[in-house]
Amino acid sequence: MPHCLQRCRKCSLVLSNEQRFKNFFSRFDVRIHVASLKQFEERIMTTYKELGLVNSKELFQKAVKGGYAIPAFNFNNLEQLQAIIGACVETKSPVILQVSSGARKYANSTLLKHLAKGAVDYAKELGCAIPIVLHLDHGDTFELCKSCIESGFSSVMIDGSHHPYDKNVELTKQVVEYAHKYDVTVEGELGVLAGIEDEVSSAVTHYTKPEEVEDFVKKTGVDSLAISIGTSHGANKFKPEQCTRSADGVLLPPPLRFDILEEVEKRIPGFPIVLHGASSVPAELVKIINANGGKLKDAVGIPEDQLRKAAKSAVCKVNIDSDGRLAMTAAIRKTLVDNPAEFDPRKYLGPARDQLKALYMHKVVNVLGSNNRA
Ligand code: G3H
Ligand code: 13P
Ligand code: ZN
Predict the structure, then answer these.
(1) Residue 226 Cα, ligand 2 centroid: separation in angstroms?
(2) H or E stretch at 304
(3) What is the pLDDT of residue 27?
């Protein structure tokens, strides 16, 4: 036997690489008993409860009953976080702070943990301790989900939607089994959205098959399910040839497939449903960007009245990222074009933050209906 194999002092079982690694870095300098790995993990992990965060379980139950949806806003920097918390405190809305794996790499996971704790304290300081969830968006491996759970996330998405059905079930179930040990909620996905997601992209939409949802939910134990009914990621959700044009030349996207949503609701009544790719790509923001040196062509999103209708159903989480990017970019471009001598980042990031906060307040109050639900 190679001498580097390390055995548990109590039961003599050979330790796995992970157990050896944790043993090596243990602050307590003890050999880990195989059976007590969970307690050991708890000692070295940051639980979301320590950060003052909540998981999404109760929020979703209330949202489904109340006919509204919780905003899931993506973030990766301070100004976005300030805008999200400012908007949700002012409207008294619960909120899901959503981080993609690309955003986590960009912002650094240690900083994110402290930013999330800071968000909880900041909300209190602003006068309303709104419920805050820290959620991994589009997790693509078990290891990524586990790492997020260990660093304070209260909710994770495992996106196995690009895998064959059985593999999606297997991967999702593995994440659920781990996450539920720590009271962390899990979002799964069935059906594929067109557009670019972090690490994965698809040119075409594959709508969710309603006949699969019951089996998927039962076999995996997920807490919520993202479905594909015609939304899409990014600012160019549809090609012009998929759209019609209004009299004044504005692109009108194909309507969402509410028939699929209704069929899904019939099969898993009251189960929390998630909509990704739900930005509306406001024409006025695209106009400001293009009038100030930008080049966004044929940008088109999901009309807000359709999202409002979805939020009144079992859809209880709505993901919005691109609209926030557009709002910030519009404000930054305009400020710099209007003030070419400006070089203090606060002078252009400040207006971007204000624009973003206004956009989020609008989403909460006029689209999702989650105001006064904190
Ligand atoms: O669904 C994708 C989100 O908009 C995240 O985008 O991966 O560029 O951070 P990102
Ligand atoms: P948008 O690109 O439409 O904002 O969608 C964001 C999203 O679904 C994040 O998971
Ligand atoms: Zn998404």
Answers:
(1) 12
(2) helix 304-311
(3) 45
Q: Is the pLDDT of residue 1 over 50?
A: no
CA distances from 35 to 10, 45, 146, 162, 225 (A): 10, 17, 19, 35, 33
Summarised one tens digit per residue, pLDDT across range 3-47 is: 456 666 666 666 666 666 666 655 444 455 555 666 666 677 999
Q: Whose CA is nearest to atom 7 of ligand 1?
A: 198
pTM: 0.89
Q: Which amino acid is at 36?
A: S
Testing ligand 1's pocket by substitution, the residue of 135, 233, 237 carrying the most ligand atoms inside 8 A of its CB is 233
- Quote the CA–CA distance of 53 and 189 in Å, as a whole number: 24
Assess whether the C-beta atom of 363 lies below 6 angstroms from ligand 2: no
Q: Does residue 60 sit in helix, strand or coil?
A: helix
- Could you list the active site residues? 137
d(CA 338, CA 331): 10
